[in-house]
Design brief:
The chain is an alpha+beta fold. The chain is about 65% helix and about 15% strand. A hairpin with a 2-residue loop joins strand 2 and strand 3. The protein is elongated and about 90 Å long.
Length: about 350
């Protein structure tokens, strides 16, 4: 147990440093990208910095597997260069036991990443999108290409865009139990009220009665939605930044309603793949630590880790895009790279263990 803690802590310290460094690096690149918007509308340098900081937690989540790979390479590599791994092996500690200590480290990291994904990233993304949209005088980008659709009990809702908390381009279809259209409400804007209702303005209402369509244009109209404004704003952010539990619930809801859920399913299974990727990265570092690479320098290990990480990320993105393009089962396209990584890492570890046993 003490040995596991010692090895785990050695790797965890490096993991924290690498995570901070990679997040800072990619945040800097994101900040440079945001600089192109400075000067548009009311968007200032401080807005670009705020947007970059608010989107940083999502980068932590996405970079975690690569950070784990580099941490395992450098952390265990440091122990190897100080001959500590050799000492452990001389006392009968197996490679599997040493790598198992790193895998155990993955468990609290996975819990921490889940908490970040569930409670930190969604509100941070909402704030980032809302503040940037307000500064640019634009609408939230998440509701493009036809806006957002939702339905419940014969009521279909379409929202084209958000500006802050105000909804634009609201269309409400109401159908009877037999599937006939009962009413159609179109509103330019909808403003949430304290009681949960929406105050609709710029309203055109068509009501179908006995085969006749009656149209009126009330100056204002209150409507009680079946979705809260918070839920709509949550669905306005990119699917990959939604809370995992909310995303899972929404996918199930879409399936129950026989609606297209491929993009949201892909995002959900991509989140599920992150823990598998973390463990796979820990396993795949083993042959480079216990093999000939252990005598190499830290720079060589960083290069190896960076190359492996980039290849994995590229493969993961390609399979994800192909899965969406070819309508492949999202679970397969999202999990396949991580499962393959786990298999390769396990095979390399077993091969190294068998080779070490043969030499003895």
């Amino acid at each position: 147990m003490l040995l596991d803690r010692y090895i785990g802590w050695a790797v965890f310290r490096v993991f924290l440093l690498i995570t901070a460094g990679l997040t800072a690096l990619f945040s800097l690149l994101g900040f440079v990208e945001q600089l192109s918007l400075v000067g548009q509308g009311q968007y200032r340098l401080s807005d670009a910095l705020s947007y970059t900081l608010l989107t940083a937690p999502d980068r932590v989540l996405q970079l975690a597997p690569v950070s784990m790979l580099l941490a395992a390479l450098l952390g265990l590599g440091t122990l190897a260069r100080h001959s500590e791994l050799t000492a452990f092996r001389s006392f009968g500690v197996s490679q599997a036991r040493i790598i198992g200590a790193v895998v155990k480290l993955c468990l609290p990291v996975i819990i921490a990443l889940f908490l970040i994904a569930q409670f930190v990233i969604p509100p941070a993304q909402q704030a980032a999108q809302r503040e940037r949209a307000a500064a640019l005088g634009a609408t939230l980008p998440g509701l493009s290409n036809g806006g957002f659709w939702a339905q419940k009990n014969g009521v279909f809702l379409n929202v084209q865009s958000f500006t802050g908390t105000v909804l634009h381009g609201v269309t409400i279809f109401t159908f009877d139990a037999d599937g006939a259209l009962h009413s159609l409400i179109e509103a330019d804007n909808a403003t949430p009220q304290p009681d949960g209702s929406w105050a609709l303005t710029g309203v055109t209402r068509d009501t179908v009665t006995s085969g006749q369509t009656l149209m009126d244009k009330p100056a204002a109209l209150n409507w009680k939605p079946f979705l809260s404004t918070k839920q709509l704003q949550l669905l306005a952010i990119p699917p990959q930044t939604m809370p995992p539990l909310a995303l899972y619930s929404y996918v199930r809801q879409l399936k129950r309603q026989h609606q297209e859920a491929l993009v949201y399913e892909q995002s959900f299974w991509s989140m599920v793949a992150i823990p598998l990727s973390l463990i796979g990265m820990a396993l795949i570092a083993a042959p480079f630590v216990f093999g000939p690479q252990r005598s190499g320098g830290a720079g060589q290990q960083i290069v190896i880790g960076a190359l492996l990480g980039m290849v994995f990320v590229l493969v993961q993105q390609i399979t994800g895009y192909l899965g969406l393009l070819l309508a492949v089962n999202p679970a397969f396209s999202a999990l396949a790279p991580s499962l393959l990584l786990l298999a390769v890492g396990g095979w390399l570890l077993e091969r190294g263990h068998a080779g070490g046993a043969a030499m003895r």
